[in-house]
Design goal:
With about 350 residues, chain A is α/β, with parallel strands linked by helices. Chain A has 12 helices and 12 strands. Chain B has helices at about 1-5, 10-25, 35-40, 45-60, 65-80, 80-85, 85-110, 115-130, 140-145, 155-175, 175-195, 200-225, 235-245, 255-275, 280-305. The chains are: A alpha/beta (about 350), B mainly alpha (about 300).
Chain lengths: ~350, ~300
Amino acid sequence: MNISRMLLGAAGIAMTAGLAHADAHSGDTSEMRIALSNNYAGNSWRQAMLQTWKESTAQAVADGVVAAADAYTTSENQATEQAAQIQNMILQGYDAIVLNAASPTALNGAVKEACDAGVIVVSFDGIVTEPCAYRIAVDFAQMGREQVEYLATRLADGGNLLEIRGLAGVFVDDEISKGIHEGVDNNDQFEIVGSVHGDWAQDVAQKAVAGILPSLPEVVGVVTQGGDGYGTAQAFEAAGRDTPLIVLGNRQDELQWWAEQRDANGYETLSLSIAPGVASLAFWVAQQVLAGEEVPQDLTVPFLKITQADLDEALASTPEGSVANVSYFLEDAQQVIADAE
Amino acid sequence: MTFLARHRIVLPVVSLAVLLAATFYMQPRAMSYFGLNLLFNLAVPIALATIAQMMIIMVNDIDLSLGAFVSLTACVTATFLQDAPLIGALIMLSLILSYAALGALIHAFDLPAIVVTLGMSFVWGGLALFILPSPGGSSPEWLRALMTVKPPFAPMAVVAAIIIALVTHLLIMRSGIGTVLRGVGGNARSVGRAGWSLIRLKALAYGLAGLFGVLAGMTLVGLTTAADANIAMRYTLLSIAGVILGGGEFIGGKVSPTGAVIGALTLTLAASFLSFMRLSSDWQIGAQGAILILVLTARLIFRQGGRT
């Protein structure tokens, strides 16, 4: 098992380097077709996701790894429409369906139809609960814990933290916040002295932080959910307070601000979020399943972390108004599969 | 020409046949028991919703709350009907009765149905969110079994479409009360003068719409196995389009149950057809609209041809 995985990894590296044909897989998938079923394309994250899918799969098709990898987006963000789309894909004879679902449950019927017809279903980001499907989920709680752990390495003395939350009532907000609070419980040198909802938007975060700042003691660190770091920094600056250590969320404006601060006063922090390129990870996981690899039903997406050292590179490759992205390759998928076992 | 003008069912049948032939040409796999079922099974709840809308259009009203109502009944199906069948059935019954009451209210106070139902869509939507705040629930076993049954000769979707068309045809086109109901749309005053209680007839029409709305929600959950509060939002417009595509008209009580079912099948098929054509999603809604306009134009041309 270990040797075969090493061989596979070697094949993957050779392939992505463009050196070899990808025939070294355990199973040949060159005749197989994979479809992307996507429910929504109306924001920068989804646009980046579709772009990454196009680029990575075009390469995979050119290399002869699979015969086709077509992307379909429903014209309306509706579960019933996506269910019909999935059923159409079964009819079109795709061997695997990579799915970003409109609803975690309302597609289960169609997903079951696909499984029964022998089609592999890999869901990511918007995952489905049907047991026969594969899920590439995001461990949002871990994202929260990692922020506090990073702060613990930087601020050994601890101190007061400000928490910026997301959109109230949304599952993602609850999960990240839960992780942050777990992290604080494990690192009792920290105390959360204030919490505001930034709705993952810079302007909302700025207003909310500006509102709570006068009532707060000295804040040494800010834990965020992404899309709110830049607004938080602006609010601290406007209040004339020292800029604390703000954990960022990979948005271009946040990275831009970080680079400016670094150049001005050596500011150092960490940025982490989910890369839209997770679609390419799902593609490779589907390919691995088709190739006959043993893959657990539940996998976890790695975060895209940007550290001080990667900042310039990440900033240069992120279009204005967008979010930092990364394409995943075969060996990344194999790593994720290995981690889950 | 006069033949087409007289038999309004011919055009919907021809549109469906043409679209079906084109789909089979593009995707020969669809031409099988299994393929037909996949192509049409999600049309079953749409067909039932279209029949519900037809009941309202039959009495010259229009229902803008149907999508939200079907979403609500789907949520009730996935929660109460599964966990406590008796309470679930009672909720469904009271929903049908409230639809009937709505019809009576609209008639008694001479309210515009379009405004009342638009308002009710928020009530239904709110109730659905209240019952199922986050997507989930599960389908009752018997319902799932019913929707995945594999009858001999023809797949479930086709059999269900035929049964729905047959039952509603008998009810609306053949039975005495159906004729009177259509009369309400045609000439309410003369129906009233003939001694019928208009308020009861309207309540009956709305109650029937509620009944078919409940059936639509139940069959939808039988197919999807779970619900969410927004699951059927697009049924409002789909059902109106289905009625019109099937040869119905907004006023005059001129409706056709068989046509409505065929209209629902055609709309479902049109979406699949465009997907098989690999048309970009940005163009799909536009193309669906174009198909609709094309069929309606054909109808208008034939009717005018028949008149001269």
